[in-house]
# Entry
Amino acid sequence: MLGFGHILTPSIILYAVLGCALGMITGVLPGFGPAAATGLLLPLAFVLEPTQSIVMLASIYYGSMYGGTITSVLLNVPGEASSVATCIDGYQMTKKGQAGKALAIAAIGSFIGGTIAMIGLVFSSKLADLAISFTFLDMFGFSLLALTLVVGLTGDSMIKGLISAFLGLFIGMVGLDIYTGGPRFTMGLPELTDGISFIAVIMGIFGLSEILESIGGKKQPDFSGNIGSVLLKWRDFKDSFGAIMRGTGIGFFFGLVPGSPAAACSFTSYTIEKRISKTPERFGKGAIQGVAGPETANNALGISNFIPLITLGIPSSATMAILLGAFTINGLTPGPTLFTNNPEIAWGLIASLGLSNVILLVMSLPLVRVWISILRIPTMTLYAITLAFMTIGAYVISGSMFTVLTLWVSGLIGFVLRRYKFPMAPAALTLVLGAMLEKSFRTALQINYGDFGSLFSSTRANVAYALIVLIIGSKIVTAVRRKMNPKTQSSAQKSLNDTEEVRS
Amino acid sequence: MLVLVKSKTNKEKNGEIMRNTKSALRISILAIAALTLSVSTSGSVSAAVKAGAACKKAGQKSGTFTCTKVGTKLVWKANAVKPVAPVVPVKSEYDLQIAAWLKDCNNTISVIIGYGAGGATDIWVRNKANYIQTLTGAKVNVTNLPGAGGSLGITKVTSAKRNGCTIGNVNLPSALQYLRPTSSVTYNKESINFIATSGFSSNALVVNATSAYKTVADLIAAAKAAPGKINAGSDGPGSDDAIAYYDVETKAGIKLNQVVLDGSAAKVTALLSNQIDFFGGSVTGVLPQLTNKQFRALCVYTDKAVKFIPDVPTCVSQGLNVLSTNLWSLMMAQGVDEKRRQAIEDLMIKIAENPAYVASADKLGIETRIFTSDALSEEWTRQAVLYKGILAKI
# Structure
């Protein structure tokens, strides 16, 4: 209550609205993620009141979680890292004339996920111990489990899916090997020491390759006559409800555990939705759950990410590190004492996130119509504008042309892969999970003095291993059954072809 | 009487003060009047001295008059008034150099930070940039160019125009990474033009607040009892904390198990969850956990106590002769005119001596210790020798 009392002043509300609007724009601009926006506005912390600056930066961060969806759905260009999974089905929905529905369910899911996560945030001090109870061994088990789910993203050809997955793993390996201090595949270029920019690669293989393929194709897509309705039907909501609830849980969990990348969270939600769906063949072809799940997870994570920051002083992402900077500039110490020494800041921040959640829903739904009207722009003009924004966005990431080059090269690689019908999603997933898997594995082994047996000493990791065995086992059983009963296979293929026709 | 005095109200006290003040004023007025009178009296004494009045000895001076022979008479004549040059404030070399610097830079100074926004370096440099702006009136553009442990930023600054309009940060010891055999970094000490530095943070040896190790001796004893079984969080081979661990191992005769963790947030998480036993990290970075009593610092790797944690002993005083500190500094490209460089350095020293600046740096958990460029260069050489020696042994 103290928080809401403190936050409901005209100036703070103004900063929250301004932050939400800026965050939304940030999310929409490809490549220009929340870290860049909050970094740019961090100097405000030197001049504004502590609550004002922290509320504004937090609202920018949270607003970008809403805004990132828009270009993912409309243009297949992820506005920021955590919206990558949304591209897969969101863009297919646009192609089917359901862009409005995709954006509306993303906004509603985000609101629900964010609101439920808020309840968790209120009890954050109780969750701090849980947050740090996850060891590197547990993380290894979870990332291995998430990587196993890549099998579900391979599409029609397992081989092509695995090649795509290995490509993602390889790109993720470039950079300095922190365990030996030696460079890996950096070709002597200092720009590659910190690895290849994830968001530039993703914009390239998803967005740029899409544009290249359309330009090179026989018939360019024309969205202008196929905008469709923006109104959600009860059935859409009913179909998405489970995905929204699961997304909330997944997002909250990922945000709570320090060091879990946001992109891994939305991908995990996506792959779980696909795996448990009764109609997995609809995924990748415009399934509404494929948008609702990851988008909800993304926003629940956006809220729960504050738990390690305000209760333990641990920043889980680059944006959280910037927020920690805003605390430091104001001489504030995040951690357990924040609630006792500066309750107005701690509760004010929590209250402002609740406020932002409402502001963003109110902003998002009426704006859906405005956003989809972008599709009325002639396709080639739209592509030219998108390319320009992607290029600027790539430059903003690092302030160097090297990232722009990364975007263009990734676009060309993506174009070639598309031509030969390689799925893109496995590459994106392994690009995120590869680094997490490697770090958790090597660090867990170092902590346990190199003893491989220790990998089985954690209950949580053991549960993850058991699930992996189940997933692989069920895949083998399904394959064997199909082999033994070709009739089932052909009917499955038929249903796939039907959906393919709908798509084209 | 005593009772009466004691029972004086505030109003009465104020009245008394007023009365005393009035008497003091009266006395002052009388004194001033007396002084004025004496001056006017002395003026009347010399009233005979005026232009044209007779005087007795040629050359005699009285006030602005000199006794001069005009014709056959000796008369007082006003001295010739020497033309007085208009008062022009004399600009110091510093002012001239700073003015020329700003003119060459079109009043815009570019500051490049080799690290991402929000970190200790970023905030330290931005704070400094605010003061450069305030003290010179120049517009200061700050850009983050993170990558390769700050080296991309250094490379960009060292290849900038030689007019001093682009300055950047250089952190010691992380900038020493160019000495690693596998390094792809293209700068070296000679390509950096140092400007005085003031950002200082010692590294501290920290354990979880629940740890059984209360002193450095406890930790060393445990490490001796179980060689290679005490987990120390590290930024990886060749990093400053790994170098310090090597020094600790050598001097204490122990063997640690270094666990590589990706960044300070990962080290903090690992220590909070007791996956590692301790780590050596900058006081600036662990101050939140120390303030919150989640961590306990066993010692600081510097020559004197750190102002933010004054009760923590130095490692040297605990028998562990290991020094490991961080210096945040500014620099520019080589080839900038030496007078200009010196003026910019003087500006940085002025900022570092400003109490408001020191207070703002304190808020960030960064101590202000001034190192001139020469002192910084010496410190660089000292650390480079140590670093190379340890790298050779590793």
Remarks:
- Chain A touches chain B through 59 residues (CB under 8 Å).
- The radius of gyration of chain A is 22 Å.
- Chain A has 23 helices and two strands.
- Residues 343-372 of chain A form the longest helix (30 residues).
